[in-house]
Specification:
Number of strands: 15
Distance between the termini: 23 Å
Protein name: Response regulator transcription factor
Helix content: 25-40%
Strand content: 25-35%
GO biological process, one term: regulation of DNA-templated transcription
Number of domains: 2
Modified residues (4-aspartylphosphate): 56
Oligomer: single chain
Strand order of the largest sheet: 2-1-3-4-5
Number of helices: 7
Mean pLDDT: 87
Domain Response regulatory: 5-115
Keywords: DNA-binding, Phosphoprotein, Transcription, Transcription regulation, Two-component regulatory system
């Protein structure tokens, strides 16, 4: 398992100290340095050896969202007491988003996501996959995919739906094979007939998952089966 070499930023010293204490409870997590001043962190940035950053959003001088734009190639875990920043945080491809006060099990989950992200980093080709489809060999960007469903005419085939409403028919492929070839942690099986892209999820309950397509006026709703519920919730950011 890859070692997390982490920098912590939080302008509230008691919260920063508590975060440091939680990190000491976790294996494979090394706190390289902690900062309560983001400008001081920027001054030191070029001298620091780290791969992950737990980054408070509300800080004086420069906020965490702006700071994250300068941390290309690092796994970013945002933290804040305010939920309204979540959408903007994930627009920056954050690994996770923590609500304060911090909890050990939730922090551990965030670092697990960071390990997956770091393992996939540098394999940009994993964003693109090539599958046998009804159009021949098709190369596709997995970030454009909303969901994948069992084809109506032949269950061995899978219908790939893109966020813009276009479709492709992947020929003679299993969901297990698709999940193995697609970026890890970004897609999840939610019932026997559907795999959903987590970035396309707009709403969910314990029974249903919804996603939005540009070609549909209303969100599309899928059943969330009990056997897949725990994994789905664990993979969701936040």
């Amino acid at each position: 398992m890859r070692m997390i070499k982490c920098v912590l930023l939080d302008d509230e010293l008691p919260m920063l100290g508590y975060l440091q204490a939680l990190c000491r409870e976790l294996e494979n997590v090394e706190v390289v340095k902690s900062y309560n001043n983001p400008l001081k962190f920027l001054d030191d940035l070029d001298q620091l050896d780290f791969n992950t950053c737990v980054l408070d959003i509300n800080m004086p001088g420069i906020n965490g969202l702006e700071l994250a734009k300068r941390l290309e190639g690092k796994a970013i875990i945002f933290s804040t007491a305010y939920k309204e920043y979540a959408a903007e945080a994930f627009d920056l491809d954050a690994v996770d988003y923590l609500r304060k006060p911090y909890r050990l099990e939730r922090l551990e989950k965030a670092f697990s996501k960071a390990q997956v992200w770091l393992s996939n980093k540098g394999h940009a080709s994993h964003i693109y996959v090539e599958l046998n489809t009804n159009l021949g060999k098709s190369r596709m960007n997995t970030n454009d995919i909303a969901y994948i469903a069992v084809a109506e005419n032949d269950r061995r085939d899978k219908e790939i739906w893109f966020k813009d409403g276009q479709t492709l028919l992947a020929k003679n492929i299993t969901f297990d094979d698709i999940l193995e070839r697609f970026p890890r942690g970004r897609f999840c099986k939610i019932n026997r007939k559907t795999v959903i892209a987590l970035h396309a999820v707009s709403h969910y309950t314990t029974q249903w998952v919804s996603c939005e397509l540009a070609s549909h006026r209303k969100p599309i709703q899928f059943k969330l089966s009990e056997q897949y519920r725990e994994q789905f919730v664990a993979l969701l950011p936040g």
